[in-house]
């Protein structure tokens, strides 16, 4: 019988005799210990961006993290993109904010969807994600597990063109090829091309098609019952806002006497961080301030575990097959009935007895000759 007893340790109140300190154990400081250790170690996050060229992927990434990761990139002309293959390019940058260090890795996919023939253009991307899972699995199964480098892709921002009537076939096939491997967050690129009413209609259409084709995009976790009402309201707004309609800009312009990042048009200014203009702020808050850790948890607990279970199953099946081919003695199946099992065991016993009798006779004959 197991008895569960719940104790409540009280935080000590400083008194002259310090009697309360005797009732204080100290494990209430564990969150602070974890926080200090995490801050000292630093954090890492791998973000993949995918979509056709010209969708503003590079600009949005620079806007999100206030950095410039694409200083030396080369833009291809139309002729060079006819037979272009998909590349995988990694950019890594160390960012520090208020003493917290973040190692950010951006995985870019130039060439995706740009060629005339886009048949299976997502294959190099799925292969790359699997390679990172495989490398992590090897490191985790090795002897030196102390300093494992986590290069698994934690999130994929997929850019959907603002023109058209929803998802294209290449969009559907890409997301279906990746939705079991990575957290997909669909974005409507260059949202300043559309009116608010057009954005709303396009969002509704994309949500309907995602459900229709069974595409599994990243699902926001449910709020805990003890969360405050403000957080619950923000979470509700994020869920209703997907897919995010975004605008990126690295240009600082003058608006209402203030300098803001945005785009200057003859008819006015589009501000990147104005929530009435686009969903950039909501995306940044979700990706960095509220759900970055959950994206990593889902990657580890769901996508990587599925890959790991599949690898172990394949290794077990291969090992069993090799044993059956190499073993001269038949292996009894687990589902063999008891009667049949006893019969086989009895036959083996009789065979061993006959061999023992023959051996005894041979030894006797050799002894008689001597």
Tally of DSSP helical segments: 9
Uncertain residue segments: none
SSE-based structural type:
alpha/beta
Percent helix:
40-55%
The chain-level mean pLDDT equals: 80
Give the amount of beta strand, in percent.
Answer: 5-15%
Order of H and E elements: HEHEEHEHEHHEEEEHHH
Q: N- to C-terminal separation?
A: 71 Å
Please state the overall shape, judged from the principal axes of the Cα atoms: elongated
Cα-based radius of gyration, to the nearest Å: 31 Å
Strand order of the largest sheet: 2-3-1-4-5-6
E-strand count:
9
Largest sheet: 6 strands, mixed
Tags for this entry?
single chain; 370 residues; alpha/beta; six-stranded mixed beta sheet; three-stranded antiparallel beta sheet; 43% helix; Septin; cytoplasm; nucleotide-binding; GTP binding
Give an account of the 3D structure.
Its main location: cytoplasm. It is found in: Cytoplasm. GO terms for molecular function: GTP binding. By secondary structure, the protein is α/β, with parallel strands linked by helices. It is about 45% helix and about 15% strand. The protein is built from nine helices and nine strands. The strands form two sheets. The chain has a six-stranded mixed sheet with strand order 2-3-1-4-5-6, with helices on both faces. The chain has a three-stranded antiparallel sheet with strand order 7-8-9, with no helix packed on it. Strand 8 and strand 9 form a beta hairpin. Helix 7 crosses helix 8. The chain is elongated, with a radius of gyration of 31 Å. The N and C termini lie far apart (about 70 Å). The relative contact order is 0.09.
């Amino acid at each position: 019988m197991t008895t569960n007893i719940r104790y409540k340790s009280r935080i000590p109140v400083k008194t002259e005799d310090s009697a309360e300190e005797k009732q204080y154990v100290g494990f209430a400081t564990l969150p602070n210990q974890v926080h200090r250790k995490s801050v000292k170690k630093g954090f890492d996050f791998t973000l993949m961006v995918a979509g056709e060229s010209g969708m503003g992927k590079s600009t949005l990434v620079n806007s999100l993290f206030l950095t410039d990761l694409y200083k030396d990139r080369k833009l291809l002309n139309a002729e060079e993109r006819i037979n272009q293959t998909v590349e995988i390019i990694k950019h890594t940058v160390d960012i520090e904010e208020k003493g917290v260090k973040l190692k950010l890795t951006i995985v870019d996919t130039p060439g995706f969807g740009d060629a005339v023939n886009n048949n299976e253009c997502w294959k190099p991307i799925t292969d790359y994600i699997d390679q990172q899972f495989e490398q992590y699995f090897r490191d985790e199964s090795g002897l030196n597990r102390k300093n494992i480098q986590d290069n698994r892709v934690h999130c994929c921002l997929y850019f959907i063109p603002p023109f058209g009537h929803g998802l294209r076939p290449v969009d559907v096939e890409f997301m279906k090829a990746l939705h079991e491997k990575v957290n997909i967050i669909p974005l409507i690129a260059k949202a300043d091309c559309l009116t608010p009413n057009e954005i709303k209609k396009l969002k509704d259409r994309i949500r309907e098609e995602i459900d229709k084709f069974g595409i599994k995009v990243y699902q926001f976790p449910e709020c805990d019952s003890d969360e405050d009402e403000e957080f619950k309201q923000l979470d509700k707004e994020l869920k209703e806002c997907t897919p995010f309609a975004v605008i990126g800009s690295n240009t600082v312009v003058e608006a209402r006497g203030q300098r803001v990042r945005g785009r200057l048009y003859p008819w006015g200014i589009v501000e990147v961080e104005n929530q009435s203009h686009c969903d950039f702020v909501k995306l940044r808050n979700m990706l960095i301030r509220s759900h970055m850790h959950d994206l990593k948890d889902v990657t580890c607990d769901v996508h990587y575990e599925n890959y790991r279970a599949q690898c172990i199953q394949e290794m077990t099946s291969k090992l069993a097959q090799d044993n059956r081919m190499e073993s001269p003695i038949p292996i009894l199946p687990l589902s063999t009935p008891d009667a049949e099992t006893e019969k086989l065991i009895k036959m083996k016993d009789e065979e061993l007895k006959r061999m023992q009798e023959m051996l005894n006779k041979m030894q006797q004959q050799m002894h008689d000759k001597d």
